[in-house]
Amino acid sequence: xxxxxxxxxTLNYANAAQxxxxxxxxxxxxxxxxxxxxxxxxDIAMPDTTYGTCIAxxxxxxxxxxxxxxxxxxxxxxxxxxxxxNCWLIWGAPQQEILRLAERLQxxxxxxxxxxxxxxxxxxxxxxxxxxxxxxxxxLAVHLED
Length: 146
Description:
This protein has helices at 17-31, 64-79, 94-105, 119-124, 127-134, and strands spanning 6-10, 34-41, 53-55, 87-91, 109-114, 138-143. By secondary structure, it is of the alpha/beta class. It has one domain (6-143): HUPs (Rossmann fold, 3-Layer(aba) Sandwich), CATH 3.40.50. It has a six-stranded mixed sheet, with helices on both faces. The longest helix has 16 residues, at 64-79.
């Protein structure tokens, strides 16, 4: 059986995100793996920034929406014991940026929440589905209730 050394949690702030984190923490303990956390911003405008930009968590900006997102990520990380050095806030397309970060960090497991696809989500795909089909590492898709 494969021994995971670096696990990446993809964070969204849905109520069920705690379920995803709990699964990742169980695996982290079982394998004594390193745990990292990523949240991809795709719903706020980022002035003068291109897609794929990694946001510095230790630099303060005048952009209130961005500062709010940074604080949310850091609070989530602190609540599960992940240091700031293992947290990533990236602006861009979630599927693309998660895959890019996973390769860069040499992650061997990505843990993502997955909703049952229906309607347009079924036709267009979801982040979990895209990761499952394009990642070079293992994916754990944790089923989330709608």
